[in-house]
């Protein structure tokens, strides 16, 4: 009870004293209020720094206090931030607090005030806030210049992904200010008439030179650069290793580079906690750390990455000897290289003083690792490489690692070498083909080149040793230079053993042995057919004799240019599939199966022939038509070879285009692929290559086609051949009537010839004056035809009428009297031109045929006689030679061309009456021709007298005149 009373009294006392204390606080300012508040600005950081003191603390007193700070924007009532800041406060301490503003501080005015609360256990409750300090105004705009427009923040650096608040401040309230980031307009919020704020969310890195943001009004523009950097990453894959236990190389993956223009990039520092050493790294990805000589074994390294915005670090703890990454070995050499062995030597860089390295030797051949060995190495080492192939290029490589604590292999170092040649290791694969010709065996040997792995070098030649088994002493050696793959031997009827070896520069291969027996073993074996498949040809056979050392299947295509191929088979096989990429569809292959006896004699077991794939024939036989009669013809295609076709010929189809509804007997009506109907005859025997088409209609034509057929189809239905069937009597015609006609013709020719002869002899031809050669020599100026002058061309002035019987009246133009009044008992000249007044050599008219007279003038017995009008014809001058005449004529015609033919120049018409005796030119007429009853008027020629007649005194020839007189019936 007493205890209770004591406790109660104490409680009351305490309560009382607190009341007293409280009343004191309320009445006067509390001690420990914040005083001397100072606010400063860091524009770049957008930070407000506050500092203040707390008075009335006793000397060694430390009080735990809470300060409440309020920040307002634009006006004091607009509180944007309230924060309680707890801190133990000592005597005379200056307190600091900072606040980072999202909005650049230049944008608007900020206000700050502070109050405090003692939260120390030494001071009894209740606790009360002190009074607020007065508002401190922070106006960064005051320090700005007089520019009309500002944009903030200036040159701010932010990380990618952060939100950035920017603002513009205008000196005068304006509404039409627009802002853009990288030319993309941005829209903000108006804080006051002069200030607008833009919030850019999640800004992205655009370029190292920063992002451009600007605002403009009609007269001004202002802008800022916002530096957006990548976020600094934590270094990845941080590890350290040593090559020689003297230094460490620490490496890492730095991730994104955060470097920006005008901003320093991230820095890396190494810190080792045991030694307390720090190193600023020079490179971004690795750092060199010098190992202390005091043989520190364990390291705890911290790598710190740092830029202006961030700092990140990673640590590793390791033992130095467990991080040995040796340098690659050196001085790799190969010694004592033989065909199958080589020795490899190399050196390693020492690691520390004691360590042993583990080295790995790898042998590569043809790009693959063939052998791999591990070798323990101190400094120098060697390895014996064996089981190598001769004449092969190898690459040998070596790498090393710490033997005790494996960390990493060094890089490889390698060397290439080639082993030496060795004798070929295998006998060449040899096969033969034997032909018996005239009591000797022609043996063709074939061998395959040895594979590289068996040749062991370049094969230089093949030795063929031929041993006569019947005469053991007789051995023949042939050396055949490579790269031959066979040879031909002519052997007699003895048995021979043939050894074939391949030789290179080092030695000789084992021998391949073949025995050619006296009987070549090509006994008559029926050839069977075989059908190839996509997989090849499947062959099987029955073993015949018990003792065989193997079987050989050989094959060759029908094409003789292709070489024999063969396949060796075990003695206990009885079937095989022959595959070859060389098998082509439509080519026939012949297969032979041999068994090889223990004496190495090959006996033919079976023969097969077949196609890998049969193809329909691509061509039809060339068919010859013979024995054509009026009812039948024969077809034959003997040249068609059934063996060299693209499939097995089963027979032939003879197609005949039908004449009527019905086909010929034996033919069958079929529809061809082009829907035409045809008659088909089937020949089953591929060797029957003739066919007679019968029962044909004479005098008609037929169309036929012969095409082979096979299991895969028949030949092309290309052009049908047409045959015209003669009529029944055509052969009679040919055999009887034609010779008769021929005889008749012969007879007629004979008769004609005889009559010609008769004519020549009995009544020879009168020469035709029209065809005289003189005519052709005269060049007419106007008339191009070398004919005798046309009557039309002349103006007749006289006409000679010869023996007019009927006495009919003949009227002439310009004639002065009727001709009927004249007597026509003689030929007469009618003078048509006036002659009385004519002086000089007057016109004279006569009729002359030069042609006819040519012969006469040639002979000198007759000439041209110009007739002068006043003188009798006997006075006519004579043109003695045809040359003269021609000249004269030519001149005359040329000169007189312009004038009228009936003009001053006298015309002389010289005519020749057709004489009955003119057939004989040689005989001159002795009598003037009488008035012939059938005389006719002939075409005349005009000769100008003036020129045609030289002066009579010059060239006159009386004989000619006489001659002419004789010919002139007028006198
Ligand atoms: C606190 O200190 C100031 C001077 O520093 C003094 O004026 C004031 O009286 C003191 N107040 C109390 C309660 O001690
Ligand atoms: C940026 O602002 C968006 C939306 O206002 C907010 O969701 C996001 O957390 C902010 N990012 C940062 C880094 O403050
Ligand atoms: C350290 O390692 C890096 C990366 O492997 C390499 O680039 C650098 O040269 C090394 N430094 C030294 C001193 O070996």
Polypeptide structure, described:
It is built from nine helices and 55 strands. With 971 residues, the chain is mainly beta. It folds into nine domains: 112 residues, Immunoglobulin-like (Sandwich); 85 residues, Sandwich (Immunoglobulin-like), CATH 2.60.40.10; 87 residues, Immunoglobulin-like; 89 residues, Sandwich (Immunoglobulin-like); 96 residues, Sandwich (Immunoglobulin-like), CATH 2.60.40.10; 68 residues, Sandwich (Immunoglobulin-like), CATH 2.60.40.10; 105 residues, Immunoglobulins (Immunoglobulin-like); 36 residues; and more. The protein is elongated, with a radius of gyration of 70 Å. The N terminus and C terminus are likely disordered. The chain binds 2-acetamido-2-deoxy-beta-D-glucopyranose (3 copies). The site of one 2-acetamido-2-deoxy-beta-D-glucopyranose has 3 residues, from loops.
Quickly count the domains: 9
Q: What is the residue-mean pLDDT, rounded to a whole number? A: 78
How many E strands? 55
Largest sheet: 6 strands, antiparallel
- Regions with pLDDT < 50 over 5+ consecutive residues? 1-27, 806-830, 832-848, 850-886, 892-971
User: What count of helical segments does DSSP give?
Assistant: 9
- Percent of residues in beta strands? 35-45%
Helix content: 10-25%
SS class = mainly beta
Shape: elongated
Distinct bound molecules: 2-acetamido-2-deoxy-beta-D-glucopyranose
Over all CA atoms, what is the radius of gyration? 70 Å
Terminal CA distance reads: 223 Å
């Amino acid at each position: 009870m007493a205890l209770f009373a004591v406790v109660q009294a104490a409680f009351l006392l305490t309560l009382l004293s607190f009341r007293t204390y409280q009343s004191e606080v309320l009445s006067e300012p509390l001690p420990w209020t914040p005083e001397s508040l100072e606010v400063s600005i860091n524009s770049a950081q957008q930070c407000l720094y506050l500092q203040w003191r707390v008075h009335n603390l006793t000397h060694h007193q430390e009080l735990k206090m809470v300060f409440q700070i309020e920040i307002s924007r634009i006006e004091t009532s607009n509180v944007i931030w309230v924060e309680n800041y707890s801190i133990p406060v000592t005597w005379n301490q200056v307190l600091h607090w900072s606040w980072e503003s999202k909005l650049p501080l230049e944008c608007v005015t900020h206000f700050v005030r502070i109050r405090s609360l003692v939260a120390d256990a030494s001071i009894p409750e209740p606790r009360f806030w002190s009074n607020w300090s007065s508002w401190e105004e922070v106006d960064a705009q005051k320090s700005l210049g007089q520019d009309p427009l500002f944009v903030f923040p200036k040159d701010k650096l932010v990380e990618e992904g952060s939100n950035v608040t920017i603002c513009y401040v205008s000196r005068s309230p304006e509404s039409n200010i627009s802002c853009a980031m990288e030319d993309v307009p941005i829209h903000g919020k108006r804080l006051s008439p002069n200030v607008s704020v833009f919030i850019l969310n999640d800004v992205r890195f655009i370029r190292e030179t920063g992002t451009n943001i600007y605002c403009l009004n009609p007269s001004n523009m202002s802008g800022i650069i916002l530096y957006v950097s990548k976020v600094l990453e934590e270094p990845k894959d941080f590890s350290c290793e040593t090559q020689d236990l003297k230094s460490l190389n620490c490496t890492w993956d730095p991730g994104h580079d955060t470097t920006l223009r005008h901003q320093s990039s991230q820095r890396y520092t190494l810190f080792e906690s045991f030694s307390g050493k720090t190193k600023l790294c020079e490179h971004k990805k690795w750092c060199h750390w010098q190992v202390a000589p005091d043989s520190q074994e364990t390291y705890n390294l911290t790598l710190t990455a740092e830029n202006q915005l961030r700092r990140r670090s990673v640590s590793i703890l390791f033992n130095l000897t467990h991080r040995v990454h040796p340098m690659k070995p050196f001085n790799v050499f190969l010694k004592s290289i033989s065909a199958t062995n080589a020795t490899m030597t190399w050196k390693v860089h020492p690691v520390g003083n004691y360590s042993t390295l583990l080295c790995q030797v790898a042998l590569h051949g043809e790009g693959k690792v063939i052998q791999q060995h591990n070798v323990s190495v101190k400094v120098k080492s060697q390895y014996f490489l064996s089981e190598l192939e001769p004449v092969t290029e190898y690459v040998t490589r070596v790498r090393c690692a710490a033997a005790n604590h494996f960390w990493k292999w060094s890089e490889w170092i390698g060397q290439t070498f080639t082993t030496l040649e060795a004798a070929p290791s295998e006998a060449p694969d040899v096969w033969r083909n034997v032909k018996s010709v005239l009591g000797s065996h022609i043996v063709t040997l074939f061998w395959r080149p040895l594979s590289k792995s068996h040749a062991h070098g370049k094969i230089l030649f093949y030795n063929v040793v031929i041993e006569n088994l019947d005469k053991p002493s007789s051995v023949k050696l042939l050396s055949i230079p490579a790269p031959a793959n066979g040879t031909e031997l002519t052997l007699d009827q003895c048995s021979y053993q043939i050894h074939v070896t391949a030789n290179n520069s080092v030695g000789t291969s084992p021998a391949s042995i073949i025995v050619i027996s006296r009987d070549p073993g090509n006994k008559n074996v029926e050839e069977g057919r075989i059908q190839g498949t996509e997989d090849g040809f499947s062959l099987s056979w029955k073993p015949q004799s018990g003792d065989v050392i193997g079987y050989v299947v050989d094959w060759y295509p029908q094409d003789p240019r292709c070489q024999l191929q063969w396949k060796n088979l075990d003695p206990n096989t009885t079937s095989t599939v022959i595959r070859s990429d060389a098998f082509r569809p439509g080519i026939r292959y012949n297969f032979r199966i041999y068994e090889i006896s223990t004496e190495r004699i090959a006996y033919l077991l079976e023969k097969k022939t077949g196609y890998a794939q049969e193809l329909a024939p691509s061509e039809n036989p060339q068919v010859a038509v013979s024995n054509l009669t009026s009812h039948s013809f024969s077809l034959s295609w003997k040249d068609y070879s059934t063996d060299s076709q693209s499939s097995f010929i089963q027979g032939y189809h003879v197609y005949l285009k039908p004449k009527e509804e019905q086909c010929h007997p034996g033919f069958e009506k079929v529809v061809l692929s082009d829907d035409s109907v045809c008659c088909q005859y089937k020949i089953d025997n591929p060797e029957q290559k003739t066919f007679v088409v019968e029962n044909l209609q004479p005098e008609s034509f037929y169309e036929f086609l012969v095409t082979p057929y096979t299991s895969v189809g028949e030949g092309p239905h290309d052009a049908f051949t047409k045959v015209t069937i003669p009529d029944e009597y055509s052969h009679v015609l040919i055999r009887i009537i034609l010779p008769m006609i021929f005889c008749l013709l012969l007879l007629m020719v004979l008769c004609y010839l005889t009559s010609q002869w008769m004519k020549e002899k009995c009544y020879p031809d009168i020469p035709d004056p029209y065809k005289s050669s003189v005519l052709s020599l005269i060049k007419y100026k106007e008339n191009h035809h070398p004919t005798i002058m046309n009557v039309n061309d002349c103006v007749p002035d006289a006409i000679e009428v010869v023996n007019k019987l009927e006495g009919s009246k003949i009227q002439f133009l310009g004639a002065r009297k009727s001709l009927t009044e004249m007597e026509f008992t003689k030929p007469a000249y009618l003078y048509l031109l006036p002659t009385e007044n004519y002086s000089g050599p007057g016109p004279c008219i006569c009729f002359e045929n030069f042609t006819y007279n040519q012969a006469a003038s040639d002979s000198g017995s007759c000439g041209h006689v110009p007739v002068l009008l006043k003188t009798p014809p006997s006075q006519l001058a004579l043109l003695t030679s045809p040359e003269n005449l021609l000249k004269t004529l030519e001149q005359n015609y040329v000169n007189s061309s312009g004038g009228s033919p009936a003009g001053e120049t006298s015309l002389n018409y010289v005519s020749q009456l057709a004489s009955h005796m003119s057939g004989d030119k040689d005989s001159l007429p002795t009598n003037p021709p009488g008035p012939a009853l059938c005389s006719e008027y002939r075409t005349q020629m005009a000769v100008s007298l003036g020129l045609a007649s030289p002066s009579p005194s010059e060239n006159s020839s009386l004989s000619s005149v006489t001659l002419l007189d004789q010919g002139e019936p007028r006198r």
